[in-house]
Amino acid sequence: MISGKISAKVEEYVFGGLVAAIGVFTLLDATTIAARADNAVGPRAFPYAVGVLLVATGVAAIIATARGKLGQAEEGEDVAVDSRTDWVTVGKLVAVLIAHLVLIDLVGWPVAATVLFFGAAWTLGAVWWRALPIAVALALVVQVVFASGLGLSLPAGIFEGVPFLDG
């Protein structure tokens, strides 16, 4: 029993340390991102925010572990032990992701992201006629936020020249 608690404590320290280390790496790597000086919120803002949150979360996990607050062991009561992996669904999701990666350069972010968002939703059971307009809207919102809000240029592809889609 005691060795189990020691092992769990070590695992939680390692987890907290890894999360904090990933945060430090993110912060250091964000400094290498080229940014225009005239943009108040540039491409470094999001990585900095994520890095700070990762470091804070990792440190909080280490402090909680030191105070004796360990996570509860998973007993698997909500897991169907005898169910198998649905490899067809996994294959469809991988195919949708690969299609997205190929389509970004060919037709641009808005179309590729629509394929990604729609394909993932449909593969996981969404009704196609609901998923498609939501996927289109989500892809366009991401494009506009990156182009107009952050000043980052996602490839517009077939929408090249549309003012609010170009970064």
Automatic annotation (TrEMBL):
TM region positions: 12-33, 45-66, 87-104, 110-129, 136-159
All copies of domain DUF1468, residue ranges: 14-155
Record's keyword terms, sorted: Membrane, Transmembrane, Transmembrane helix
Keyword Transmembrane: yes
Source domain of life: Bacteria
Protein name, as recorded: Tripartite tricarboxylate transporter TctB family protein
Keyword flag Transmembrane helix: yes
UniProt source species: Lentzea miocenica
